[in-house]
Amino acid sequence: MHIFLLAVMPIILLARCCSDEQFKGKSFIPPFIIGAIVATIFCVIKKFFIFSQHIITDNIFSNIIYNYTSLFTPIIIALCIFLLLDRDSLAYKGAALLPLLGSIYAIVYPYNVLRGADKLELFLNIAQPLIYISSALITTSICRKAFSIKKIVIRLALIILAFANTFIPVIVESLWYYSVNNTNFIITTIVYTVLALLLDIILSPKDNFIEENTINAQQES
Fold it and tell me: How far apart (Å, rounded) are the C-alpha atoms in residues 36 and 129?
């Protein structure tokens, strides 16, 4: 059971990145490595320097905030490092969100599960990893679409939507703790995963969008 938890997100992530024609050569490797390193360091700090264990309370909002913070912190750090080091186009930055987010989710979420008291729950080991990687796919698809639109208002609205989508996994996980019926969460997992696949197909830029934008960015500079 833990094998699925540990393996499914990296496998889907690498398969998607390797099959993406927008990436040339190994261009998805830098954000992947940055995300993985930051996530690993974050987990090491939590393991050896933060000894308090979060206890599920009756306040669902506090649980959502705690769960989101444990993921949002390494994401912000990794994103800042990537933006400081990367000099490529907005199109590439949008596509690079998938390996960046995916590598963080693939390390931090399994760590949180294996560290918790509910590490044998099927939902946390099987359904929730699919929701997390689907969230990374949807967030990336929306941002890639946003960066391809010139109208600032529409672009900003899509970026806000992509940010809001990052809350979905922690909201679903928090709600699961208060439910006695797993059927609704199984349906939610299936629907959300299918939605991620559809949006990935529909919103992914066609042709050589990244390559063309990279050339334009170089010419302008």
Answer: 16
